[in-house]
Amino acid sequence: DNLEETISTARFAQRCSRVVNELKVNERVDIELVVRRLQNENAALKKELRNQQNGVFLKELEYDFNEGELEQMEENVENYLEGATNSLPILSTNHLQTYFSLMRDKVASTHSTYVSEINELRNQVNELKQKLNTYISYVGENSSTNDENDSTTGYKDTSGSSLSQKKSRN
Questions:
Q1: 22 φ, ψ to 5°?
Q2: How many Cβ atoms sit within 10 Å of the Cβ of residue 33?
Q3: How many Å apart are CA 122 and CA 129, to the nearest integer?
Q4: What spatial distance separates the first Cα and last Cα of the chain, rounded to whole Å?
Q5: Are 139 and 163 in contact (CB under 8 A)?
Q6: Per-residue pLDDT tens over the stretch 127-145
Q7: Using CA atoms, how far apart are residues 158 and 55, in angstroms rounded to an integer?
Q8: What's this model's pTM, rounded to 2 decimal places?
Q9: What's the rounded Cα separation, in Å, for the pair 35 and 43?
Q10: What percent of the chain lies above the pLDDT cut of 90?
Q11: CA triplet 65, 67, 70: central angle to 5 degrees?
């Protein structure tokens, strides 16, 4: 009597051991999240392609910095470049690459600002040169007329600046 029950239990245990449970997480797909993830991956691949075209073959790691983190990193770069701090918090190669990218952008921006200021100053210098040349030619014309007038009085201009001597005489 117990033997049949034991055999039945053993057969049941054998059948139970063959049962395979497949676990699956019930997941709702957020389309915006999928799109954002694909856009980030696309941007990373484009950057990697650009680097390869420029001769840099470093594998770009996935950038997952949110806007607040990027703003903080920009502020850190500003403080570093202004000398307010002597170091940057580099937690990963992503941080390092992002800091270098931010610094490169800052240098390029500063460079373009300086170039435009230099061009503006060059234009101002050229305008002043033109005004000075106009003034010199005007003074030259007037001084030759005045020299002729001075020759009648016996005054001879040896310095080439009759205007200053006339002022000192008066």
A1: -110, 120
A2: 9
A3: 10
A4: 148
A5: yes
A6: 999 999 988 888 877 776 6
A7: 68
A8: 0.38
A9: 12
A10: 18
A11: 65
pLDDT at residue 162 in the model: 46
Query: Are residues 162 and 156 in contact, defined by beta-carbon separation less than 8 angstroms?
Result: no
* pLDDT higher than 50, residue 165: no
List CB contacts of 156: < 8 A, sequence separation 6 or more.
150
- Answer positive or negative: Cα dihedral of 143, 148, 154, 160: positive
113 pLDDT band, cuts 50/70/90, is confident
Cα 147–chain centre separation: 61
Taking CA atoms, 95 is separated from 82, 109, 150, in Å, by 20, 21, 79
| Distance between CA atoms of residues 14 and 119, nearest Å | 89
94 within 8 A of 86, measured Cβ to Cβ: no
SS3 annotation, the chain: CHHHHHHHHHHHHHHHHHCCCCCCCCCCCCHHHHHHHHHHHHHHHHHHHHHHHCCCCCCCCCCCCCHHHHHHHHHHHHHHHHCCCCCCCCCCHHHHHHHHHHHHHHHHHHHHHHHHHHHHHHHHHHHHHHHHHHHHHHHHHHHHHHHHHHHHHCCCCCCCCHHHHHHHHC
